[in-house]
Write a structure and sequence with these properties.
Bound molecules: nicotinamide-adenine-dinucleotide, SN-glycerol-3-phosphate
Shape: globular
CATH superfamily of the largest domain: NAD(P)-binding Rossmann-like Domain
Helix content: 40-55%
EC number: 1.1.1.8
Catalytic activity: sn-glycerol 3-phosphate + NAD(+) = dihydroxyacetone phosphate + NADH + H(+)
Strand content: 5-15%
Number of domains: 2
Keywords: NAD, Oxidoreductase
CATH topology of the largest domain: Rossmann fold
Largest sheet: 8 strands, mixed
Strand order of the largest sheet: 3-2-1-4-5-6-7-8
InterPro entries: 6-PGluconate_DH-like_C_sf, 6PGD_dom2, G3P_DH_NAD-dep, G3P_DH_NAD-dep_C, G3P_DH_NAD-dep_N, NAD(P)-bd_dom_sf
GO molecular function, one term: NAD binding
Structural class: alpha/beta
CATH architecture of the largest domain: 3-Layer(aba) Sandwich
Length: 375
Amino acid sequence: MLHLSFKVSTAIHPSAKSRVLVLGAGNFGSCLADHLGDSDHDVYIWSRDETVVQYFNLHHRNPGYLKDHLFSSNIQAVGPDIPDRNLIQEMDVLLFAIPTQGLRDTLSALRPKIDSHKLPLLIFVNKGIETGTQALTLEIIADTCGGEVARSATFISGPSFAKEIVRRQPTSVSVASLCEAQAKKASELFHQPWFRCYTGGDPIGLELAGALKNVYAIAAGMSDGLGFENNTRASLITRGLSEMTRIGTAYGASPLTFLGLAGVGDLFLTCSSSSSRNYTVGYRLGKGESLETIIKTLGSVAEGVTTAKGLKKIIDELGVDAPIANGIYQVLYEGKRVQEGVQELMSRPPSRELDLPETTGGPAQRLLGKLRSSK
Ligand SMILES: NC(=O)c1ccc[n+]([C@@H]2O[C@H](COP(=O)([O-])OP(=O)(O)OC[C@H]3O[C@@H](n4cnc5c(N)ncnc54)[C@H](O)[C@@H]3O)[C@@H](O)[C@H]2O)c1
Ligand SMILES: O=P(O)(O)OC[C@H](O)CO
């Protein structure tokens, strides 16, 4: 395996050491804690599992995730109780690496401990849609912490398998916030020669791209699991991109965001690698396993499975043509056989290739209005 040796770049870290609390000690939380610890920041990582906390502090290893990796000695694990007010108020950065379905409860528990007069930089890396409410993370933040906090929240997304990042394999990500200065701060915190950050101002598009690519990765995995080969996967990725851009535009996001790292970059990655959990779910479904068995044995979250539910509601409400996402929903939740789903997808009449819906802003406009009017 090619091994490049990158040095931590202090030139792009003009700011002093930051104190960072990472919430969530799974694959991605641990990986990002390591990245920041290696860049010489003081890092705390919260796990709700006491065994993980003790093991991490004793051995600098995570017993549940990235088991072979020796983590930076600049990380201290805390938990299992939610971190206390003193620790929270000492932090410059709170980094949330918790699956989307658990975020609302964690934010609600943390909010009273955060000093409103000295807001830390809040960074979110989850990629999903909340089941039941169809809320994006921006909306969950607004609901639990208010509009001011949501307006300054920053989101990171893009092609980023945790197990490659801990080995310093080069990648690039998108960093977006409604507040440009916060996106710049987050980018400066994370940017390293092996981890390039590109900033942008469309957090809604970035969030949708990250959440939706997980659903299309399930589709690509299914196709491979059924035994279809390269042409099929390439056409699925391309039509998936077209579909997610159509949904995003109808939602009120910028279509350009879907051409970036959070869109096509991450879509391509997860649709073409067995390292992706979402691809793996699809592959195993294609091989005939039940969803229940797959989830029980996966050992880690595949956000596309729950996101498919919220996405189905969004598609129906917006009236967007989304045959792939609809097909995945039917296979996951309506008992449709995978082969039947493929048959239906391919038997549709021919249509125009590239059309974007007219949008007057869709749900994004309502969400942004809500953020502007709430404190
Ligand atoms: N793994 C990656 O390569 C990667 C890359 C980019 C983004 N992400 C995103 O980051 C998020 C986290 O993914 P992951 O790979 O770390 O998942 P994971 O399954 O590896 O770990 C999830 C962690 O969150 C904790 N957790 C789950 N529900 C919780 C709750 N309700 N409250 C508190 N903690 C809870 C679990 O105990 C576990 O420690 C997901 O949204 C994922 O899509 C992952
Ligand atoms: O393993 P997956 O499918 O959750 O993908 C992980 C990341 O989102 C890749 O960027």
